[in-house]
Amino acid sequence: MDLTPFLSSLEGTTLDQVLLSVAISGKVAIAMKGRFLLRSVCESFQDRTRIGCAVTDEATCLRYLLREPYELLICTDYLEDGNGFELARKARAAQPSLRVVVLALGDVIPAQYVDAPWLEAVVAVMGHHSYRSPALRTGTLPYLSCPRLTKREYEVLDLLASGLTDREIAERLVVSEETAKTYTKRLLKTLDVNNRLQAVLKGMRCGMVQI
Please, are residues 12 and 3 in contact by the beta-carbon 8 Å criterion? Predict the structure, then answer.
């Protein structure tokens, strides 16, 4: 999926800055696994004119990166088609000054990438924490506690992963919007996370949901 042409029409509030703590002034390329993550990260940019590429696969992202200089690449380790670590490697080969942040959905950095000189930062968003290289040079991400969810919490997590708003969740579950908001808040508390994006990321890493 290529969301780049539609960036100007996105609406949303700024997300937790743990994903976007790198100060940048140039173009940004974003490659995420699934439309929900892609849209969420794009919406977290107040100035979306900096985003020159917003896709869900490796090949399309590389085509954008070959067209013009970029300052930052943000990608997930898993993509809908391709591999985030390979994308980072090829992107740095094409643009040596490119800065790269890999958002980890898996539990382990593949052995062939652990000591790669181009792997500058790996971030695992879990509740209130983020983890970066070189602390991750062991190749294993920090222990992740996966709580047990109720049937309703699983339903809400699935709907969040589909990108639904509280109003849309209320319609799906045939409850009031206020009740849907309460469900979402309870889910975030159970997962010990700060926002919907972190809930979906943790749900993916715990094997609770797929996108």
Answer: no
- Measure the CA–CA gap between 140 and 159, rounded to whole angstroms: 30
Instruction: Return the bridge partners of 90, or none.
Output: none
pLDDT in tens, 20-39: 445 567 899 999 988 888 88
For residues 72 and 50, what is the distance between their CA atoms, to the nearest angstrom?
10
pLDDT for 173 equals 95
- pTM for the model stands at 0.68
Q: Across the beta sheet with 99-103, what order do the strands follow?
A: 51-55, 28-31, 72-76, 99-103, 121-123
């000189």: which residue's tokens? 117
Tokens at 200, concatenated: 């979906």
> What's phi and psi for 14, nearest 5 deg?
-70, 135
